[in-house]
User: Fold ABC transporter permease from Nonomuraea purpurea.
Amino acid sequence: MTRALFLFEALRMARHPLVWGATALVLALQTYLSWDQQPDLSVDPVHATGLSTCLAGAVLIVASLAVSRDGRHGMPESLAGLPGRAEHRTRAILLATPLVAGLAAAVAVGGYLAIRLLSGPAGGKLDVWEPLTAVAASMFAATLGAAIGRWARWLIAGPIVVAVLGFLIFTNFQNGAAGWLLPVMQEDRPDWPDRPSAVHLVYVVALTIVFGGLALLRHRLRIVPLAAVVAALAVAVPSGATAAAEPPIVRFPVGRPLSLSDVDPRVRERYFGPDARRCSTRHGITYCAYKGYEPWIPLWESVVRPAADVLPADLRARLPSVQQTSMAWLYTDPPEIRPTMAWGHPDQRILLAQDVASWAADIKIPVGTARVGCDAYGQARTVVMLWIIGQVAPPEPPRLLRAGSDFGRSTVLRWGPAEVAYAKLLLHTPDARAKVQAHWDTLMKPTTTIDQALPLLGLPRTHAAPTGARPCP
Assistant:
């Protein structure tokens, strides 16, 4: 009897449009949200697991409605004459629903990770426990839905639980370490310490068994489901406590100079140890990436090399190494050319080209003005700097550029439409590279104005380009 009911419930769940609609939604939405970022195995599975909460919510509602169906609309009288009891139907749903839910989660998260791996070189390190947590979370939702359907027979009970859990998960960043007591912890960054993902997976699996046993205990007190609940609780309590005991991310103090001791000790060696980066030299330029991010070096080269190749040969030979930098743990003077922990957005290409151009132009920020910056208006070297950036991206006025998923970076230099217009003209000038290199020393002097540089560069005067009130020295 249970086998036949299991096959019926499994086929019914497998054909349910809400389940596969949510699966397609998770896959499509997560792919869209990350389309402009290079694959990062450190965070992609976490983000996919977080969004798979939508699928888990759909599974919970479907499971609760399936279990409670025999108590609605005269069904008790109709089913009374059948040989199977309600306990058999609950057992069949508990076997079928988690199976299909886990399969749907595997399709959503596995499909997303496959798309990411096929979309370009992947950086970071894969934590295999994270995608398994997405599968376990959907199975947990299935057994929780079954327990709700048996113990709270109101149709609205399932959606209410989904709304409450969804809100708690969505605001998990406010819950601190207690957030690990929820089935999903989607808050993460690539430069944060390792997550207690393995013990958290054990916790979610144990909760799955607890609610499955509670659903069966609704019918009558039996030794097997009771023992399963007790044993699962004996695992869930210490594993949940262990995950929740994970120390919070150490934040930098304010109001005093920072030092290496202020960096979270769990990542100190990873980002500041002697073997923190792996370096390689390509076409005379050294690139250093954190462990796991070496596949991104050719992507950085596609930006750095075009900008570096227009420099005079002796200057190009002195180009600093390109060093990947964690902006979260930046406590001292950063490298001059520094890709961050994210890559793919056009702004990140501009930032890297900007680093090369700023180093080449050697514009110094006056001491004590790091926050207010200085005016690069009217200076010839500003046009050259924008022309170097233009080898990678069109010159534009200064703005906040996206350096990562949730933070930006902007230059403290100021320039205007005139400098941008002359840089664009220079990009379309024949032999611009030879002209810039021939007059490099003159063009790089802070006292050389744009009007003085126009004859050297072969450009017509099209815009007034006065110097600023606080010129850069």
Observations:
- Residues 260-457 form one domain.
